C-alpha cells in the first residue's frame, strides 16, 4: 500500500491491458481469499487445541501469538525477499512456505504436541507476511490510481468471505460433538482420555493435507501465470525531493502514532474474531452453536466494507470513519461486558462492524507526507500486525485471572486511542 509515483503507475498500465488487469485482479483476489481462510482458522484452533492439548486460556491464545508474531519478525525480511525475487515469484514462494507450515500440522496431530502446532502456525504466518508485503501494494499499483480504493475493497471482501467460511468448515470437523466429548473426558481414566484426545487431534490431519495441496497448486499456478511484474525501484527517486530536511523515519509522529494505532487495531480485531467461540462456550452456549460465531463477526465486517465503499469519501471522510468506528467499538464492548448470554455474544460479533473501516483509514493517514520514507513506513505498519499476537495473549491471561467476559475491558483503551488518532493524532507533524 505504498504510494507510487506516476511513472511507475504508467509503466504498470502500459504493461497490462484491461483483460490482463481483470485476470490479475482475479488471481490476487484468490490470494486474499487464502489469506482470510488460513488466518481465521485460528478461531477454531484455539478452542480445539485447548481441548486436545489440555490447555488453559493463556496457553490456548499462544495460537494467535505464534501466528501474528511472524509479521513483526518477517516484515522487513519479506521486503528483502521481494527485492530479490520480484512480486510474482515472491508470492509463489510465500505460498510454498505456508504449505510447509500447514504440513507440520500432520506430525503435530499424530504426536499431539502443542509446540509443533505453534511452529506450524509461525511458519504459516511467515509465508503470509511475504504474501501480504507483496499483494497489498501490488493490488494498489495494478490499475488506475483513482480506482485503487475499489480494488482494495474487493480484496477485503474476498478476505472476509473466506474468513467467514473457514471456521464453519473446520469447526464442523474439529469441534463436532465437542461438548459431549468434554463431558466424557471428565469421567475417563488417563489411558482412555489419551486415546480420545489422540482421536480428536487426528481430526485436523485430512483438512490440513488438503490445505497443503491447494497452497502448492496455487503456488505453481502463480509462478507460471501471466501476472505482470511491476517495477517499484524508481519510487524513491521520484519522491527524493520530499522531506529534504528529514533524515529518519522516526521524525514523523503521524507514522509512529499510526503504527501504535495499527498494533492496537489488529489486536482488537483478532480478539473479536478469535475469542468469540471460547467466550460463547463460557456463557453456557454449546460449542456446536458457538463454532459459528466467528463467521458472524466477519459477516459484520463485510457489511462494514460495503458501507465504506458507498459512504467514503462521498458522505464521510476517512478521519470521521475512524472516529465513528472507535466510538462504536467502545460502546459495543461495554455492552458485551454488562450483558450476558446471546446478547453479550452478539455485541462481540458487532465489533466486526466497528473494526471494518479502521485499517483502510489508518494506513493512508499514517503514511501521509512520508515522501521517500514511504516504503520503510509501510514496513512499520506491516510489523504492527503483531498486535494480533500480543493483545489476544493478554486477553487470555486476563480471562484466567478474572473471567472471559471481564477480560474484554482490555479493548476499551485500545478503541479510545484509535479515536484519539482519528481526531488529532494523525495531524501530528515535526
TrEMBL record:
Keywords per UniProt: Cell membrane, Membrane, Transmembrane, Transmembrane helix
Main localization, broad class: membrane
PROSITE patterns recorded: MFS (PS50850)
InterPro entries named among the record's database cross-references: Glc/Gal_transptr_bac (IPR005964), MFS (IPR011701), MFS_dom (IPR020846), MFS_trans_sf (IPR036259), MFS_TsgA-like (IPR050375)
Membrane spanning residue stretches: 25-49, 61-81, 93-110, 116-140, 152-175, 205-224, 255-280, 292-312, 321-339, 345-368, 380-399, 405-422
Membrane-topology descriptor: Multi-pass membrane protein
Protein's cellular compartments: Cell inner membrane
Database matches in NCBIfam families: gluP (TIGR01272)
Name of this protein: Sugar MFS transporter
